[in-house]
């Protein structure tokens, strides 16, 4: 019996030692790979100093109106995400795609992600980078909150708003599910390189892009940037805090609600024919945010409408730009 217990103890000890070696190897693998990724992950646009940190803005196009894009929560690289729209917009309008802190090529910041801080940072970025109103604001998903707050704070600079399957403040305040964050397990999987190893699998990459139509309209070189961004921006304090404060941020926007005089277009996904009655209810009521509003349900699309129908999205943006 004693020999058996002794043998069991050795087995357990060697097992624990093997696990520790594997974990340590994974940590080193992740750190080395991250350093290599950072060398090739160079800004697609320019970096500007905002509150002592670098904030990224990608610009292009020509014209009197500047279309300002707000990405959805967790979209690792906004520049890649909105890329199917650039060629369609460039001959007619200027455009500016910003990375909130914690996203894309921007730094992370120690400032809390409350809605007024986020909005002030966006406004300062547009100013220091030399952008000029009028702005046509285009928001995807949770980007609706900062977009509406921007319009509330700087209404004279806004020509109109286009929402890309964006949630209304009423939805985020009253009916959105409680935010689910990754926690310690996700952090462990990231820091020990497990997630990075999974991204070596084509099937895993395809699954991660499924809701974005497989990035069908994105060139291969930009898909590589998106993959690198996904690995570098998987979890950080800014992205987590942004989600954590979404309900509070929605309340701030709601408390300042007054219908806008400029036009609002609400584009809603049909989720490939699988309706969500709660989401659809709020989407229909989203038009109450403007005295000149319309809603359009876009068939055969998922949440990232602009990855499914960039032609239609560009047409709706240009329609407001011409008004």
From TrEMBL:
Sequence ranges assigned to domain AB hydrolase-1 in this UniProt record: 66-169
Protein name from the UniProt record: Alpha/beta hydrolase
Source organism phylogeny: Bacteria, Bacillati, Bacillota, Bacilli, Bacillales
InterPro entries: AB_hydrolase_1, AB_hydrolase_fold, AB_hydrolase_sf
First and last residue of the signal peptide: none
Pfam families in UniProt: Abhydrolase_1 (PF00561)
GO cellular component, one term: membrane
GO MF term (any one): hydrolase activity
Keyword Oxidoreductase: no
Keywords (A to Z) from UniProt: Hydrolase
Keyword Kinase in record: no
């Amino acid at each position: 019996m004693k020999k058996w217990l002794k043998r069991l103890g050795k087995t357990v000890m060697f097992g624990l030692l093997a696990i520790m070696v594997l974990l340590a190897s994974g940590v080193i693998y992740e750190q080395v790979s991250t350093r290599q990724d950072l060398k090739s992950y160079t800004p697609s646009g320019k970096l500007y100093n905002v509150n002592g940190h670098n904030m990224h803005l990608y610009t292009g196009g020509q014209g009197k109106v500047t279309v300002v894009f707000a990405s959805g929560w967790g979209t690792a690289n906004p520049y890649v995400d909105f890329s199917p729209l650039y060629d369609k917009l460039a001959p007619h309008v200027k455009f500016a795609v910003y990375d909130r802190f914690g996203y894309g090529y921007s730094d992370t910041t120690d400032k809390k992600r409350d809605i007024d801080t986020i909005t002030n940072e966006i406004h300062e970025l547009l100013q220091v980078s030399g952008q000029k109103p009028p702005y046509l604001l285009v928001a995807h998903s949770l980007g609706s909150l900062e977009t509406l707050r921007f319009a509330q704070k700087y209404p004279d600079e806004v020509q109109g708003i286009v929402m890309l399957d964006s949630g209304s403040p009423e939805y985020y305040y009253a009916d959105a599910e409680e935010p689910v964050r990754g926690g310690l397990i996700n952090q462990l999987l990231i820091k020990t390189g497990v997630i990075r190893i999974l991204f070596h699998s084509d099937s895993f990459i395809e699954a991660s892009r499924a809701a974005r139509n497989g990035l069908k309209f994105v060139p291969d070189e930009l898909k590589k940037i998106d993959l690198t961004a996904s690995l570098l921006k998987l979890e950080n304090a800014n992205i987590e805090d942004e989600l954590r404060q979404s309900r509070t941020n929605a309340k701030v926007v709601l408390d300042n609600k007054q219908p806008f005089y400029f036009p609002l277009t609400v584009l809603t996904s049909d989720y490939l024919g699988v309706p969500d009655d709660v989401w659809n209810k709020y989407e229909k009521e989203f038009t109450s945010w403007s005295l000149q509003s319309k809603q359009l349900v876009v068939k055969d699309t998922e949440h990232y409408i602009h990855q499914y129908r960039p032609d239609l999205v560009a047409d709706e943006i240009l329609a407001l730009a011409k008004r």
